[in-house]
From TrEMBL:
This is Universal stress protein. InterPro entries: Rossmann-like_a/b/a_fold, Universal_stress_UspA, UspA. Belongs to the universal stress protein A family. Keywords: ATP-binding, Nucleotide-binding. It comes from Roseicyclus persicicus. Pfam families: Usp. The keyword ATP-binding applies. Residues 7-133, 140-273 form the UspA domain.
């Protein structure tokens, strides 16, 4: 995402209220960027043929009626088959710059046993993915970006600058003194050295960022603790994260931090990958 404006935005919808919010945000972004809008919906191919064909026709008719005005060039795709396969094929189209999705519908028991459909989609999409939780009442105003000095976090900052150029953007990095219970944590003799090392890493990473992107602020604390404090202080309407920023195998393909935010986003969530 290096161009100043988006050219094609694709939004997936299942006609739910969650998807309606995603569609509204996608339309708003398409107007702001003078971008083409592509709407895709998948009907489960497991339905009996007659019912499947009826659902497909009804979905297409509904989306035709819901088209935005003539100021947004819109194409509509409705297919029956494997839902995830269809959506990934369209969302990964070479012309797509941004994928927009509604948030995951919580299933408390099942979510604890398996990867959610939303996680599978975000994991499979190779473009930046915007998960829309809230009503689109205007352009994004405040963005929060937790960073870990990775390429995907740099991509998150660049993506925020692209889709929310008028928003204030705060990048934060959480750092901790190892074995805080034994060493004394932030007040220990180790703390200045650990902070200095972390600051050097931050400065080296920030020096390689494109001009105009915010430099990270170092905040002492665990990742979840710092995020909760920042959410309360900044009150962002957009959080952006890099997916799976640690090398090597992981329990969650997207990274545990990213997977948890995808399941329970505090606001609209932008997920990016490194190049």
């Amino acid at each position: 995402m290096t161009d100043a404006k988006l050219r094609t935005i694709m939004v997936a919808t299942d006609l739910s209220e969650r998807s309606d919010r995603a569609l509204d945000r996608a339309v708003m972004l398409a107007r702001a960027h003078d971008a083409r809008l592509s709407v895709v919906s998948a009907v489960d191919g497991a339905y009996p043929p007659a019912l499947r064909d009826e659902f497909t026709a009804r979905v297409r008719q509904h989306l035709d009626h819901a088209r935005p005005g003539d100021d947004v060039v819109t194409t509509i795709h409705v297919e029956a088959g494997d839902v995830v396969e269809i959506l990934l094929r369209h969302l990964n189209g070479p012309e797509v710059d941004l994928a927009v999705l509604g948030v995951h519908r919580t299933r408390t028991f099942l979510d604890g046993l398996r990867q959610t459909t939303m996680e599978r989609l975000v994991q499979g999409v190779r473009k930046p993915v915007l998960l829309v939780r809230d009503l689109a009442t205007g352009p994004y105003a405040r963005a929060l970006v937790p960073v870990s000095f990775s390429p995907s976090c740099a991509a998150a900052l660049a993506a925020v600058a692209q889709i929310a150029p008028g928003a204030s953007c705060r990048a934060v990095h959480a750092w901790l003194v190892p074995f805080g219970g034994l060493t004394g944590g932030a007040g220990s003799e180790m703390a200045p050295a650990v902070e200095a090392e972390t600051r050097a890493l931050a400065e080296d990473w920030a020096a390689r960022l494109p001009a105009g992107l915010p430099r990270p602020v170092l905040v002492h604390g665990g990742v979840v603790e710092v995020l909760e404090r920042e959410l309360a202080t900044v009150a962002p309407d957009l959080v952006a994260i890099g997916a799976h920023t640690r090398p090597g195998p992981a329990l969650h393909p997207l990274g545990g931090f990213a997977a948890e935010l995808i399941r329970r986003p505090p606001c609209d969530l932008l997920v990016t990958r490194g190049r």
